[in-house]
Amino acid sequence: AVIDTQGTFDNKSSFRDNSTVFAMSLLISSLTVYNIHGNLQENDMTNLNFFLEFGRMAGKSGMTPFHDIMFLVRDWMNEDEFDYGLAGGKEYLKGFMQIDASQS
Fold first, then answer.
1. How far apart are CA 11 and CA 1, in angstroms?
2. What is the pTM of this model?
3. Distance between CA 92 and CA 11 in Å, rounded?
């Protein structure tokens, strides 16, 4: 199923509305593309963690939680440090996750 949740997590909608739309799309899509502008931010990961927990709860109740997720960073700001594409993104995410974990 292809679902476009354009505008999710904009500044005009409530967190509850955004959460409902995003959670439903995660449950019925085989691939979720998490579209981010410019650079991955901590609040992006906070939102994603919220939905990971939702998926875990759905899995415990017998529902199939989301399958695959891919980050799409448009207007990438780190092209000097990390290559475009999957390999550069994985390298960036690896470093981002280490920094985030050390701040906890």
1. 27
2. 0.65
3. 27
